[in-house]
Structures are given as structure tokens and as C-alpha cells.
Amino acid sequence: MPDISPEQFRETAARIEAEVGKVIVGQQGVVRHVLVALLGEGHVLLEGVPGLGKTMLVRTLAQALDLTFARIQFTPDLMPADIVGTDILEESEDGRRTFRFQPGPVFTHLLLADEINRATPKTQSALLEAMQERTVTVANQSYPLPPPFMVLATQNPIEMEGTYPLPEAQLDRFLFKVNVTFPSSAELVEILNRTTGSAAPAAGVVADRDTVTAMAALVRDVPAASPVTDYAVRLVFATHPQSEDAPEAVRQYVRYGASPRAAQALILGGKVTALLAGRYNVALEDLRQIAPAALRHRVLLNFEAQAEGIAPDDVVKAVIEAIPEK
Questions:
Q1: pLDDT grade for 126, boundaries at 50, 70 and 90
Q2: May I ask the CATH class of domain 6-76+106-195+207-212?
Q3: How confident is the model at residue 294 (pLDDT cuts 50, 70, 90)?
Q4: How confident is the model at residue 266 (pLDDT cuts 50, 70, 90)?
Q5: pLDDT for residue 160
Q6: Whole-prediction pTM value?
Q7: Cα-based torsion angle of the residue sequence 265, 267, 270, 271 in order, rounded to the nearest 10 degrees
Q8: Contact 239, 246 (CB under 8 A)
Q9: Which bin fits 53, alpha (ψ -120 to 50), beta or left (φ > 0)?
Q10: Rounded to the nearest 10 degrees, what angle do helices 284-295 and 312-322 cross at?
Q11: Half-sphere exposure of 42 toward its Cβ, with a 13 Å CA cutoff?
Q12: What fold is seen in the domain 222-322?
């Protein structure tokens, strides 16, 4: 695995974002969060209406990084074996029968779980081990997934009939939840220009698997001073209604606050954000920058919040404003 310097890290990341921008119009914030999660060795839940380019984003990122890509369309009749694979019975030339493992589409670098909430909880849970341990267990045999491994799952926030909402335990496995918004009129014009002509834009290769692995290793080496980790802990504790630091919005609208994984997401995301900014140390501003993506899916709202139309982002905003830097 090649070593990489902070300067090379920043230059490579800039080239990746520029190459993805050749295909994806706008959505710079979404691209940045997906890149931060990839380099932080995490997973991303993308929420947005159909047609906003979520699938194209994942495919383009795989092209720019020369990584393998697989897409699974989640449906109610999808089974766990359709994702992780299964043992198949084979007969050799001498008539002996043996089982051979047939890997499923999860054995890839970038896995797009399209409309993940349309599959049953049994099938959704097939991804839990893969997301956490980076392994798949079939018939008491564990198989490692190829690094880097990242799950990018999509959800449609509008059409909710016939869906199975992700349980909190699975939501917590995602490093970030990113909202994909509708493009502006100027961006929509550019989308039409790029997609309705004879020449379709394509991304070139600007990095490879070894480079991504080296960049992820450098992220782990970035120091986070005690005031930074303390700030991350205070942000997480402020999402709990029983905490002394919880703002009024949390006490009134939150049923249960963020888990310890939220603090891990804040620190890891802050390390990547610091490197992207050309710094080898994490600042409090780095944590505030990625706090909405790290916390919005980990804050469980109560019925009163739903009745009054309070969104998780409203609560996270109140938490950030309520927790001072010192």
C-alpha cells in the first residue's frame, strides 16, 4: 500500500470531485459527504425523490476510482441469499458432490442498495454484518469483503406505501444520512444539455483501490485534540432529553438521542474534512460542518414532533447552536 501525504490527499480528493462533477450536475454537498464517508470507511444513506442522479453518482464514483460497482434493487420478495450469496451443490466428474459458495452482489467495492426500505426486515438485516464487520457468514463459514467496501443505500421520502422503515440499529450503521435535494433551474438546464445529446459525459480514472486505501489509512492518523473530542461528546449528549446540556427543542421533541457511533462519525468525518481543507488537525468547525449528516438519522423524534412537523434537522440545528465551543 503506497504512502500518501496530506498534500497528495487533498489533491487527489479534488481531482475525484472534479471528475465526478463532469457527470453529476450540482450536488456538490452530496458528492463531498459521500467522499468523506468513503475515506472515513463508512456507509451513506441517500434520501431523495427518484430521478436526482443517486445511482449515477455511485456509478460515476466507482468509475473515477476504478472500483467495482454493484446495484441491488430492493423489493419485498428479495431474499438474503440474493444479496450475500449461497452454497450451491456441484457434482464433479467422478460423481462426488460438494458444496461451493456462490458469492452474491455484496462482494464488491461500492454497493448501491436501491430503495432499501422496500425489502423485508429479514432481507435488510442481511447487510448488517457486511456493513459492520466487512464479512459475510453463510453456513458457518465467514467470507471477507474486498476493501474498500461501502454501502450507499437510497430511500424515497415521498412514496411510503408498502415499505419497511429501517430499524434504528440499521440506521445507526450508516456513517451519514444525506438529503439529495431537487436541482435549481440552471442545474436542470445543464442536466438536459448533458443527457439528451449524442455524447454522454463519462468520468475518467483518477485514483485506484490502493490510493483509496492509503487515503483512508491517513485519515486514521490525523490527531484530534481533547477539546475536539470533548466537543463531539457534548454534541452527542445534547441530543438526549435527559442531558443537562439538551436544548429545549430536544427536551420537547426527542424520544431518544444519538448513539456512541454518532461521536465516532463526527470525529472520522472531522478528520477527513480537515485533510480536505489542507489541515492535519481537526477543528471544531469541521465537526459542525458534518454534524447534520452524522446526527439527523440518529435522533429519534416523538409523536409531538411529528404532529407539529418538526424535522430531525431542526433539532440538530438547535443542538449545534446550543453547545458552545468552549
A1: confident
A2: alpha beta
A3: very high
A4: very high
A5: 65
A6: 0.86
A7: -110
A8: yes
A9: left
A10: 160
A11: 29
A12: Helicase, Ruva Protein; domain 3 (1.10.8)
